[in-house]
Design goal:
474 residues, alpha/beta, Rossmann fold, 3 domains, 5-stranded parallel beta sheet, 14 strands
Amino acid sequence: MEQGTTRKTVLVVDDDKNTRDGLERALRRDYEVMLAENAETAMVRLGEKNVDVLLTDVRMPGMDGLTLLQRALARNPKLICILLTAYGNVETAVEAMKRGAFDFLTKPVNLDHLDLLLKRAVRSSEMESENVQLRRQLDDKYGMENIIGSSPEMQEVFEMVRQAAPTQANVLVQGESGTGKELVAHAIHMLSTRSKGPFVAVHCASLAPTLLESELFGHEKGSFTGAAGRRIGRFEMADGGTLFLDEISETDPSVQVKLLRVLEERRFERVGGEEQVEVDIRLVAATNKELKKLVTEGKFREDLFFRLDVVNIIIPPLRNRVSDVPLLCASFLKEFAEKNGKPVEGLTNDAIAALSAYAWPGNVRELRNTIEKMVVLAHSSKLTVRDIPANIRDTVAKGGGGTSGEVRASSGVKLSETSLEGVTRQLIVESLRKNRNNRTRAAKELGLSRRTLHRKLKEYKDAGQLDADVAKKH
């Protein structure tokens, strides 16, 4: 064992005293060693202290080693189990492995072999724990699947996904174009019990009503001109999995009627057919419009809306989660640098600040495309403000983000001399002054939620980073 590392505990179980004592002498320099003369005593020891490795004989009076192995692993699935026997044979080894043994040694034990086996077993266990912890940390910090974000706004989205995914409920995902609605739908699928089934996506806005109906439900031979044979629709393709309908607000009323029936009865007929087709699907729908408003205007069926709106996940626009911009930039930069074989290693602080000050009307999709363009055209190992496309650079320099809900900066903000947090703070302070410290108006002007604005102000005040005239009112 390396110096400074925590000593692992090994429980040696053997009915032969000489074997127990010999193994204890061989192992005690590197491990904490516990001894048991039979399986029943071993189970007691396992309940008394956390044991890392169980080293047990197979043939013992009373409970044998294979049964001990099974019961020990039922109590602690992460326990490393190694079996010893003087009666080594292939059948016993296979049975041991089936029951969860890490490995199998024959007596008399080769101590050098045992030493190497224990080190390999412990390291394998440590690596597994590290990988589990790393996956948990990455999921907590950066999201799930390919969704990136550590902002409070995105953490709310992640929590909704985690809660909704294991259920069978229909999910409605709402958000502006480019926010990542399909990524959220895919995450719901991958975290659900249907993850081994198909994930089928249909982009409703790209198809005419008649084509969309055939695409969704399939058609029979001769059902319309050009229907040369039977065609399976997307509902049948998604059987046992998840069907994702993007831009469902663009569906024709005739298609909406059929969608409602499928969601209620889980069966339908193909276009031009009479046969009832039953399907087991989980529906996730998405839209960049406000469906409630479309219902009020008579452009979307209310009964279908209620069927879809069981779980409603709203993805915030990128301008409302500015703190995620650096994370997204780093991820996209790595992706496109590898893809294009470009030795680009990062962005300068002024480039990050400039990108963070832009409102991104096309949201994450626009940012991704921008970083790809910057990487492809890069001349050095770091992206600078000069690498930012001219239209974005000019918009930021003029103090505008590019949309009606933009975060506006005055022309006095020198991005090349200001950190990301400094830029954000300055934009907030300027907006509050302009709106006479009215938080509601300032938040609306900045494109932020009032809660986000309140949180940022508290952070700045606690850090002593608010100007006196603003701090005294907060």
